[in-house]
Specification:
Formate dehydrogenase/DMSO reductase fold; 15 helices; two-stranded antiparallel sheet; mainly alpha; two-stranded antiparallel ribbon
Length: 334
């Protein structure tokens, strides 16, 4: 039986992107929350919760972007010109916050500058990711297998809305991560932030979900037409279940449940996007089979991925296991 290599690679790249979103999302969310801590001691505690893992989380972004370039070169050639501005902004934000992460530990008089650099870099990276997502969802103009749109096509009311949604969603992940990893005043603040960010995330999910079907007839047919609506109904139902679990966990002051529930919300939204996109990698112009490279290349790369992916998963799991537990004032890995 011949393997559908393009489909397998589409699943692998989608998994890499999802892993990046849920793992680096709370890292970026923590940076967005940084100005709201009461003092430097609390900021030190918060930053130490991600100090051993933040750079490893970004491995998944490299894997997703590199995989897209190597496996789906046509999609890469179309998407990159369409989204140059938000992607460059995202990369600059990630670089800036990475520099700030290291420099603030060494700074004395300029610590406030690096604190704000960490926040601004985190916000820009998150907002740019949301804008890129929105621009991809609303569709990219393609003609003769090349990008046919203008420089500012990515900037629309819908993409700005998805940018705001991602910022709020990452803030929720960051707050619930702090609930897991801290105690005392920092944890108490995190519970309060999680309530607000949770409410904002649900509102933004609702707005984007109601808006999306009106962007394209394909989305409308997938989500609202009968009998397709019967097949996709479990996704919004699971979103409701995750929402209930999130707020129940916050109300009962549980620690792990809100974080897992927030991650579940992201997973369900990602699955919803997949339902709307499939079988296209550039909605709704280029399918995953049209964009894929030769089977010989896909087969060769799959051998490498079969070795690399388990190593990344093992390293990620091991690092989270080694650095498990609470972070307290005066403790850290910097």
């Amino acid at each position: 039986m011949e393997l559908d290599l393009a489909f397998i690679w589409a699943i692998l790249i989608a998994f890499a992107v999802l892993a990046y979103v849920v793992l680096d999302g709370f890292d970026l969310g923590l940076g967005i929350l940084f100005p709201f801590f009461r003092n430097d001691r609390q900021r030190d505690v918060a930053m130490n919760t991600v100090a051993p893992i933040w750079d490893g989380n970004e491995t998944w972004l490299v894997l997703g972007g590199g995989g897209l370039f190597a496996v789906f070169p046509l999609a890469y050639a179309v998407i990159m010109p369409a989204l140059y501005a938000p992607i460059i902004a995202m990369l600059l934000g990630l670089i800036f916050r990475g520099v700030a992460f290291e420099f603030r530990w060494k700074a004395n008089t300029s610590k406030t500058v690096w604190d704000w650099s960490f926040t601004i870099g985190s916000f820009v990276a998150a907002f740019a990711q949301g804008i890129a997502l929105g621009a991809l969802v609303q569709g990219i103009d393609v003609a003769d297998r090349a990008y046919a749109g203008g420089w500012w096509n990515w900037l629309t009311p819908f993409s700005i809305t998805t940018g705001i949604a991602v910022v709020i969603g990452y803030t929720l992940l960051g707050a619930t991560w702090l609930i897991v990893k801290t105690e005392g005043e920092v944890q108490q603040q995190a519970y309060e932030w999680a309530w607000m960010a949770g409410a904002g995330t649900i509102v933004m999910i609702g707005i984007v979900s109601l808006w999306t079907p009106f962007l394209n007839d394909v989305f409308m047919q997938r989500w609202l037409a009968f009998p397709a609506i019967l097949y996709v109904a479990p996704v919004p139902l699971l979103v409701l279940a995750a929402t209930y679990s999130l707020f129940k966990g916050l109300r009962m002051r549980r620690e792990l449940q809100p974080f897992l529930s927030a991650m579940a919300l992201f997973v369900m939204c990602f699955i919803g996007l997949g339902i709307g996109f499939y079988p296209y990698i550039v909605p709704h112009s280029i399918s995953i089979w049209d964009a894929a490279g030769p089977d010989s290349s896909l087969r060769f790369l799959l051998v490498g991925a079969s070795v690399l992916l388990p190593l990344i998963l093992a390293y990620t799991a091991y690092s989270y296991w080694v650095f498990r537990g609470k972070i307290r004032e005066g403790e850290g890995y910097h």
